[in-house]
Automatic annotation (TrEMBL):
It comes from the Eukaryota. This is 8683_t:CDS:1.
Length: 106
């Protein structure tokens, strides 16, 4: 998280340097750029790869939480509900122990 593009560029340069030092590889296909800026140039370079801002209204998952650039929470709510229904259907037919059930409920 950065206040402006210049700050983000500095952070990403430091990050790239650390990744090279520790031999960490980043999958650029899984990297996303989210902004609330109205600037026309909505790309940034990270580790010699161009990242483009995701389209407005697209859902994305970060640290196991769903987010959207849209100000309306209905899209995120629908996604969470859909995931909950899918997982409940899986549990409906699963054989679990009493201890596992207590863990899931708590």
């Amino acid at each position: 998280i950065a206040l402006n593009k210049e700050s983000l560029t500095k952070i990403l340069n430091t990050t790239s340097s650390f990744y090279r030092f520790t031999s960490i590889k980043v999958n650029s296909q899984k990297s996303i750029l989210v902004t609330n800026s109205i600037a026309l140039n909505k790309t940034i370079t990270f580790d010699n790869e161009q990242l483009t801002v995701i389209t407005n209204g697209i859902l994305f998952k970060y640290l196991e939480a769903w987010f959207s650039t849209n100000r309306k929470p209905i899209l995120v709510q629908k996604k969470i509900m859909a995931e909950a229904v899918i997982n409940l259907k899986k549990l409906q037919f699963a054989y679990i122990t009493e201890k596992q059930a207590i863990f899931i409920i708590n």
